Amino acid sequence: MQELKRNKTENKSGQYLEKLSSKVAVIALIAAIYATITVILGSLSYSWIQVRISEALTPLPFLMGFPAVAGLTLGCVLANCFSPVGLPDMIFGPLLTLLAGVFSWKLNFGKKTVACIYPVLVNAFGVSAYISSFYKVPYLMSVVMIAVGEFIAVVFVGYPLLTTIERTVVGLRKKENPKTHTRNC
């Protein structure tokens, strides 16, 4: 009897560790992709006129929940260590990414398009608050330019990416276990 209890406890512990390691892997993968793309694209990622292609990952919390939020935030911290804007970008950029990620995760109303809008709005207004003074451009001009860049990255690249991942992951889950399929990883 005790052997059976120990096996159940070990099994639960093993399942917990497997889920935890899977979430840590998702966090690390998203952070690495975000940071790498941002840094490689250099000035396209850091100016007041920017199309930060790595922002295409920002709708992922819609599907992946907290691990995607954490990965995006960590990726932004790493990427912004290379920002010419310096400390304000290292502090406020990740905080804005965290905010947009939480909104996309928790306030999406079950719609991918809503999950895509939060990063555009949060970054357009938030990033412009400090980047406009650094580059000495009017705040509203910065808002418009960052919104356009975010829209390109998040809607034109991120939405199709999100849809493809959703079809692939959800399709695989349905094949594996049709009765227990859920949207969040």
Task: Give a brief rundown of this model.
This protein has 185 residues and is an all-alpha fold. The chain has helices at residues 2-40, 43-46, 61-64, 66-80, 87-106, 112-135, 139-176. The protein has a single domain (2-176), classed as Arp2/3 complex 21 kDa subunit ARPC3, CATH 1.10.1760.
Question: Can you put this structure into words, describing what you see?
Answer:
With 185 residues, this protein is mostly helical. It has a single domain (2-176), classed as Arp2/3 complex 21 kDa subunit ARPC3. It is 78% helix and 0% strand. It has 7 helices and no strands.
Topology:
Elements: H1 2-40, H2 43-46, H3 61-64, H4 66-80, H5 87-106, H6 112-135, H7 139-176
Helix pairs in contact: 1-4, 4-5, 5-6, 6-7
